[in-house]
Amino acid sequence: MPRGGDVVEKKIEDIVGNMMRQLSQPGASYRQLQLTANLDGTEPRLGYTNTAAGLEKLARDMAALAKVYELSKTNATATKRDVFYDDKMIYETQRRADSAITNVCELLDVERQKIRITSSSKAFLRGELTFIDDEAKTIDARAAAIPISESLVEYRPISSALFILVIEKDATFQRLIDAGYFNVFPHSILMTGRGYPDLCSRKVLRFLGDRLAIPIFGLFDADVHGLSIYLSYKYGSGKWHVESSGVAVPKIQWLGLGFSDLDSLPIPEDQYLPIKFAEKKRLRQLVHRATQINEPAIVKEAEKMLEIGKKVELEVLTGGAGLGSRYIVTDYLRRKLYNYLPREPRQLAVAKDPNASKDKQRELVGKYKPTANRNIILIRHGQYVMDSKEKSLSDLGRKQADLLADRLAITGIKFDALHMSPLNRATETADILLQKLPPDLVRKMDPMLEEGPPYPPEPAAYHWVPSTNEFVTDGMRIEAAFRKYFHRASPRQTDDSTEIFVCHSNVIRYFVCRALQFPPEGWLRLSVANCSITWLQIRPNGRVTLKSLSDVGHLPHKKVTFG
User: Fold this and answer.
1) 3-state secondary structure 373-430
2) What is the 3-state secondary structure of 252-313?
């Protein structure tokens, strides 16, 4: 099968060949000239008129084709800005360069990412997030805001964030940070598209929401632009169909600012701005569109704006209305986001239907209330040969695993899954266990369970000092694994579940500290023996029971090791 670049190169060669054949025909004119990979009409085509504007457009499209061919041949990438500056005399403006790139996408019938041209965004993000590539290069968004670029989707995102909050404007984004947003919501990601989002912003947001499996909320002005920007994130702009495939963000939820919020706030009358005639026209169009795509909350907000003829900007919550610069963080967002975070079932019920009667709320509570326990059994691998490259199990390690397998087999517990680290000592231990467990037991390998330093310990271990980079890369990965596996049972789960995790000492110790809400820097104070059982139970109310820690009752005293 040819690689994607070969297909693109062949099409460009066909396009140029067909153009040369057209030019070589007697009496050929530029009015008849077309760019296409096939003259029989089965391929997309672009036509050019015999005018100055038409010939300039042809030159721009040919320059873009040449650039794509060069990138494919050299296996390189370039940004839209690079394309413009490489042939600035031809394009004259960035907009014309962008248009030529879009034309090439349509002509080749591919998305822009397939022609190795990326875009940089005007957007920024900051929060509990680190991007890591295959060479351990990191981009850290925790200390300062980072610009969003399309290349971020090539990295692996590591995060303990509970949600992403999208802010309409850069000014509000910065005011939130200055007001101590991350002191109140440390486990979150803050993003701004600085107005209407571009393709790059939506693509990265969609990527993060999908990869991190966390909810996305949006906070916008209470005006026609704010509502339109929300819909642009959720459904896309409808422009540049070749480029925009897969970059809508359907999981984003509108958080506000809504007129229902303003009714309960002491907002002075002078903070309500009049809606202009053109805005009223756009609001009516918005009502029509939101009705068609079933967005009743947006319809309600737009109709309310039309009814009172007023709009309100987010600045009223950041000090503009005398509420104080921290009000938006300490009051408004704390109240709004509390209902959406995975807290008590009653909060979920109220969020679902705030106007429900008490009987209806009790019914909703029953719907959202978990009833089953989740049992998590953490197994440290057997003793291994530390000075070997493979770090395989020693003879004693295999015996430890065999004795552990006997104990698990006679418990009578129905195990639902066995998760394992991909490192040799863990997979070998898991293989021995699986020989004596039911053959249909679901088994899964997860690189997130690999060994590593999870958090800078206190006090420090002077005989073992990982680099800061290791704490960043491994620590964020292990924290993400904790977020992935440690949660209450779904309300749909009716029976208790038990899952086995065959992994490593540092991972297990960190999981225990996090599950019991001990300071994470204390993980090194715990000891976990080889092939021991650490059993945690997560109850329906969210409380955690430590049923055993490093249990080695199945091992003779002389076979207990910690190395």
Assistant:
1) CEEEEEEECCCECCCCCCCCECHHHHHHHHHHHHHHHCCCCCCCEEEECCCHHHHHHH
2) EEEEECCHHHHCCCCCCHHHCEECCHHHHHHHHHHHHHHHHCCCHHHHHHHHHHHHHCEEEC
Q: Which CATH superfamily is domain 374-559 in?
A: Phosphoglycerate mutase-like (3.40.50.1240)
Q: Dump pLDDT digits (tens) for 431-450.
A: 999 999 999 998 999 988 99
Report the interhelical angle of 277-292 vs 224-235 (nearest 10°): 30
85 is catalytic: yes
CATH topology classification for 4-117: Arc Repressor Mutant, subunit A (1.10.10)
Using one digit for the tens of pLDDT, what is the confidence trace for 108-154? 777 766 776 766 567 888 888 888 877 777 888 888 888 887 778 77
Half-sphere exposure (CA, 13 Å, Cβ side) for 145? 17
Catalytic position from the list 30, 48, 69, 85: 85
CATH class label, 119-338: alpha beta
How far is it, in rounded angstroms, from Cα 442 to Cα 432?
15
Rg (CA), the chain: 29
